[in-house]
Amino acid sequence: MRKHLFLFLVLSIPLLASGQDNTPKYSNEFLSIGVGARGLAMSGSQTAHVGDITSAYWNPAGLTAMTGDFQVSLMHAEYFAGIAKYDYAGFGIRVDSLSTFAASVIRFGVDDIPDTRFLYDANGAINYDRIRFFSAADYAFLLSYARRIPQWNNLQLGANVKVIHRIAGDFASAWGFGIDLGAQYKTGGWQFGVMLQDITGTFNAWSHNAELVTSIYTQTGNEIPQNSVEITLPKMILGVARNFDLSNFSLLVSADFITTFDGKRNTLIKSDPISIDPALGVEVGYKQTAFLRLGVGDYQQIKDFDGSTYASYQPNFGVGARLNNVQIDYALTDIGNQAESLYSHVFSISIRFDKK
Fold first, then answer.
1. Which pLDDT tens digit goes with each residue over 269-280?
2. What does UniProt give as the signal peptide span (predicted)?
3. Residue closest to 87 by CA, chosen among 330, 352, 346
4. Which among 69, 84, 92, 96 is least surrounded, fewest beta carbons within 10 Å?
């Protein structure tokens, strides 16, 4: 039965992706960044072993391993020299000894963007006081449920229902809906996981206020935007992890294989229609109170101006500390290549509460 379940999860993604060749390759990409400084420091290789409130994002099945009766987590990061702000908040509650519920919210946005449509006054003179400002932001709201299946030898299952809301000032907005499924299985020191993102395809329905830009777009020869539906195609992530107990020290080694089915991508393993982007992570712990983390992923072949190509990958680093029911994590992530890196600092905190 267990084998049949995993086989169904693995094989269902290509079937759902077929027939959607006209959909864009990249949609709702803000949901590919990750949450929690621990996961980001390990390059997102979390699918098999994650077991806290951030599991709602990485693999909802991991929520069953959440310690305490309640958990809350907060994260803040800034990208592109502080231009873009990325925030996450999650809350989890243990329903009973077998099941857990969680709610999460994610925001990625650029605020205070100048709107210069009214820069000139009625006399044709520039008046900077007429500049208005707006925000372009993406929101995701996740409701997650996970349950441990004891009769199936430590199998854990989980699911997300997510609502997407994207805005570009008063010019355009979109609402979307999607479903994720996840599973984890542990045996000895080995851990395995699978995460099926956007299992049914996530639909974003865009609504444009074209009257706000029609005159300007007409003058500049741009195409007037039309209301449309954008589909985020399914994605499968397979994960494996291994724990090693070294007396006072612990060692966790993990790997994720992000598999897409929408044609050839610029990844380490690429073909049509399947591409695979591996991510590797390592965590060294001391008495489960101090942690050092490393990760590498996002391998690409970059074409230079002279026509030559070179390999690019994303290294990450992080540390963490746990004191009683509080864990504080930090990650230094590289969102560029090694030659022109744009490092971002990520901070997150998780707090566990017990009913007593």
1. 888 888 999 999
2. 1-19
3. 346
4. 96
